[in-house]
Specification:
single chain; 5% strand; elongated; 7 strands; seven-stranded mixed beta sheet; mainly alpha; 2-enoyl-CoA Hydratase, Chain A, domain 1
C-alpha cells in the first residue's frame, strides 16, 4: 500500500513539475532568473526515478538511482533554505513549503526502503541483485581467505573485529549507531569544545602569531576528524541492513554524510579556505596588512604611531616606548588593524599611564589604544571611528559572533555606555561610524577637545634654511613672497626661533603665520570688492564652523589665536588658502570712495536684525569679551548680512570695514 500510494503521488507531482518547468522556461526566455528553472529541473529526476523504482519491474539498480536522486534533491532543498535564511527571507511563509517538501522526500525514502525489503525477500532475485539491493556502495570487500564462498541465502556474519578503535571505525566495523552518534556527533561536539579550552590552557592569547598557528592546526584537525567520521559512517551504513538493521536508516546515514561532505566543501571554499590562507601567512610572520611606524618626538615627550596594526606591531611600539623613557603621550594616526595587537598595545599604554592624542584618524582597533590613555585628547578635525569586528580571511557566523561579542565586551569594560556600544555593534565591518565630538565626550572616549595642535615638536627640520625650503613648497607662501619679497625668509626666522627654544608644532606654525597676518591688513585695504566679498563669505563659514565646535573655539577664531588648520574642517582650511592667494593676486582697488554718510547708513542696515546686546558686543570690546557667546552669534549674523547685501550697499560696508 505504501509503495503503490507513493508511486501514484510521484506521478501527480511529476505532472506538476513538468507544468512548472514549461512555465519557468518561458519566464527564463523572457529574461527571468535561472534559479526557478534549475529548481524545476532538479525536481524531475527524483520524481521520475522514484516512480520507476516503485514499479513492478524495478531492479536494485533503479532503487539505488532513485535513492541517490532523492538525497540530491534533499541537498538542493537544504541549499535553497540556507539561501533564503542568508537573505533574511525566512518567516512563517517558509514553514509550510519546507514541511511539505521534507515530507515528500521522507515518504519517498521510506517507500524505497520498503521496496528494498521486498526485493531482498523475493525468492526469484539473484544473489548479485540481492547484494546490490542493500546499497553497499563504497564498503570494503571482505576477503574470504580462500574459504568456500557463502551461499546467497546464508545469514550475514560480521567479520571478526580487530585493531585499534580508530581503525575499526575507519573500516566501518562498528555499528551504525556507534559510528554516527558516538564517533560522528558526540566526539565532534567534544572536539569543538576542547580546542578553545586548549587555547586558553596554552596561554597563547597575547601572541597573534601563536594564535594563528593554533587556528591553522584547529582547521586541519577539524577536517581530518570530519574525513575520519564520514568514511566510517558511510562504510558502517552500507552494512547496516546486513546486520539486521533497517535499510532506511542506512540510506539516511549516507544521506547525512553526503550533506555533511557538501557542507564541508562549501565551508572550505567560502570560509575556512580563506581563513586557512590568512592564518598560515600570520603564523609565518607574513601579515598582509600594512606597516606600522613608531617614532619618538625630538624632545622625547611623545611617540608618534601611524599606519596599520599588524602582527608584531604591539611589540614594536612598546619597544620604542621602552627606549623613550621620557614619553608621556602616544600620538595616534591609524585606521585600525588586528584587534589582538590593539589590545596588547592598549595594555602597555595603560600600564605605563600614558596619555593618548589624535590629530588625524583613529579607527577600529586603534580605539583600543586611544581609550587606554589617561588624558584622551583629539582635535576637532580628528576622525574617531568604530565598527564591528572583521577578519581578512572571512569568518563564519559563530566565529564572527564571538569576535563581535569580545569587542563589545571590551568596550563595556572600558566604561562606554551601553547605547554607544550597541551603535558600534550595529555598524557593519564594511562601514565606519564616526561619532560627533559631543558623543565622544559624553561617552568618555575623549576627555577633552584640543583647539590647537598639541604635537610636541614633531616637525622635522634641521635648520632655518631647511624650514624656509619647506615653506617654498606651499603655493600660499610662494604667492605671499612674490607680493612681499623676503616674507618667507622672515617667517622662517620666526618659526626657527620658536623651535630652538622647544616650542610645540602649533607654536611654530603660529609664528610662521604671524608674518602673514601682519601684512594681511594692507592686502585687504587694497583688494578689489569682489575679492573682499569672497573673504567675508569665508569668514562667515569659518565663524559658523568654530561656533559649532564651542564658544571658546569661536572666541579664539575671532581673536585670531585659533589654530584653524587643526580645528576647522579641511575643506574650509583649503578654501581659506585659496581665498588668501586670490587676495594676494587681486589687483589694487580703483573704485571711487563712497560717501561716508552712505557707508554709515549701509552699516546700520547690516546691523538692523541684530539684538541690542549683539550690536553692543560688536561695538563695545569689553562687553564682547564678557559675553563671548553673544559676540560670536553677533559676528556670524553680521558677516551673513554683509554677504547677502546688494553690490552697491556691500561695497560701502566693505569700505567701512577694510579701507576707512
Amino acid at each position: 500500500m505504501l509503495v503503490r500510494g507513493t508511486r501514484t503521488l510521484n506521478v501527480i507531482l511529476l505532472v506538476v513539475a513538468v507544468i512548472g518547468l514549461v512555465a519557468t522556461l518561458g519566464e527564463w526566455r523572457a529574461g527571468g532568473g535561472a534559479f526557478p528553472l534549475l529548481a524545476s529541473l532538479v525536481w524531475l529526476a527524483p520524481l521520475f526515478q522514484t516512480w520507476r523504482a516503485l514499479g513492478e519491474s524495478a531492479t536494485a539498480r533503479s532503487v539505488k538511482a532513485a535513492t541517490i536522486a532523492n538525497f540530491v534533491l534533499l541537498a538542493f532543498f537544504a541549499v535553497g533554505v540556507l539561501r533564503l535564511l542568508v537573505r533574511d527571507e525566512s518567516g512563517m511563509s517558509m514553514v509550510v513549503p519546507a514541511v511539505v517538501v521534507a515530507a515528500i522526500i521522507a515518504l519517498n525514502l521510506r517507500a524505497l526502503s520498503r521496496r528494498v525489503e521486498e526485493l531482498t525477500a523475493s525468492p526469484s532475485i539473484s544473489p548479485i541483485a540481492r547484494r546490490d539491493a542493500v546499497f553497499t556502495i563504497g564498503e570494503d570487500v571482505q576477503e574470504n581467505d580462500g574459504a568456500t564462498p557463502a551461499s546467497a541465502d546464508a545469514p550475514y556474519v560480521e567479520p571478526e573485529v580487530k585493531g585499534l578503535y580508530v581503525m575499526r571505525h575507519w573500516r566501518g566495523q562498528l555499528s551504525l549507531p556507534v559510528s554516527y552518534w558516538i564517533n560522528g556527533t558526540l566526539l565532534g561536539m567534544l572536539l569543538g569544545a576542547a580546542l578553545p579550552a586548549l587555547k586558553g590552557l596554552l596561554g597563547i592569547s597575547d601572541s597573534l602569531r601563536q594564535v594563528a598557528l593554533f587556528f591553522v592546526a584547529t582547521i586541519c584537525i577539524a577536517y581530518l576528524s570530519w574525513l575520519w567520521s564520514f568514511v566510517g559512517i558511510w562504510r558502517s551504513a552500507g552494512r547496516h541492513a546486513q546486520r539486521g538493521g533497517s535499510a532506511f536508516w542506512g540510506y539516511a546515514a549516507r544521506g547525512s554524510v553526503m550533506l555533511g561532505v557538501f557542507g564541508a566543501v562549501v565551508q572550505m571554499v567560502t570560509i575556512y579556505g580563506p581563513q586557512l590562507r590568512e592564518f598560515t601567512m600570520l603564523a609565518m610572520g607574513k601579515d598582509t596588512f600594512g606597516e606600522i611606524q613608531a617614532t619618538p618626538s625630538p624632545n622625547g615627550d611623545a611617540v608618534m604611531v601611524w599606519g596599520t596594526l599588524r602582527e608584531g606591531s604591539a611589540k614594536q611600539v612598546l619597544r620604542v616606548l621602552d627606549n623613550t623613557p621620557g614619553a608621556r603621550t602616544v600620538i595616534l594616526n591609524s585606521n585600525g588593524g588586528r584587534l589582538l595587537e590593539g589590545r596588547v598595545l592598549a595594555d602597555g599604554v595603560r600600564q605605563r599611564k600614558l596619555n593618548t592624542y589624535v590629530e588625524g584618524e583613529c579607527s577600529s582597533a586603534c580605539t583600543y589604544v586611544l581609550m587606554a590613555g589617561v588624558d584622551r585628547v583629539a582635535t576637532p578635525n580628528a576622525k574617531i571611528g568604530f565598527h564591528r569586528a572583521s577578519f581578512g580571511g572571512g569568518m563564519d557566523s559563530a566565529v564572527e559572533s564571538a569576535a563581535v561579542t569580545s569587542m563589545l565586551n571590551y568596550y563595556r569594560k572600558a566604561g562606554l555606555p551601553d547605547n554607544f556600544v550597541q551603535r558600534v555593534g550595529a555598524t557593519p565591518a564594511s562601514a565606519v561610524w564616526y561619532p560627533s565630538r559631543e558623543e565622544l565626550l559624553q561617552a568618555r572616549v575623549l576627555t577633552r577637545i584640543a583647539l590647537r595642535s598639541e604635537s610636541p615638536g614633531m616637525l622635522q627640520v634641521e635648520s632655518r634654511d631647511v624650514l624656509a625650503e619647506r615653506l617654498k613648497e606651499s603655493a600660499l607662501y610662494r604667492t605671499f613672497d612674490q607680493r612681499f619679497p623676503g616674507a618667507i625668509s622672515r617667517a622662517a626666522e620666526r618659526g626657527w626661533a620658536v623651535k630652538t627654544r622647544g616650542g610645540s608644532d602649533a607654536e611654530i606654525f603660529a609664528a610662521l603665520r604671524s608674518e602673514m597676518k601682519q601684512a594681511l591688513s594692507g592686502v585687504l585695504k587694497n583688494a578689489s570688492d569682489e575679492a573682499l566679498a569672497e573673504f567675508v563669505k569665508l569668514l562667515a563659514a569659518e565663524t559658523n564652523a568654530a561656533r559649532n565646535i564651542s564658544v571658546d573655539a569661536c572666541s579664539q577664531f575671532l581673536d585670531g589665536t585659533l589654530d584653524t588648520s587643526s580645528a576647522l574642517p579641511p575643506v574650509l582650511v583649503e578654501e581659506e588658502r585659496k581665498t588668501i592667494v586670490q587676495l594676494l593676486k587681486s589687483p589694487p582697488h580703483k573704485g571711487r570712495q563712497p560717501d561716508p554718510y552712505m557707508a554709515d547708513a549701509m552699516m546700520r542696515v547690516a546691523f538692523q536684525n541684530l539684538s541690542k546686546d549683539q550690536a553692543r558686543a560688536l561695538t563695545d570690546k569689553t562687553f564682547g569679551t564678557r559675553q563671548p557667546a553673544v559676540r560670536c552669534d553677533a559676528t556670524l549674523k553680521f558677516y551673513q548680512n554683509v554677504a547677502s547685501m546688494q553690490q552697491s550697499a556691500q561695497s560701502a560696508v566693505l569700505w567701512s570695514m577694510y579701507r576707512r
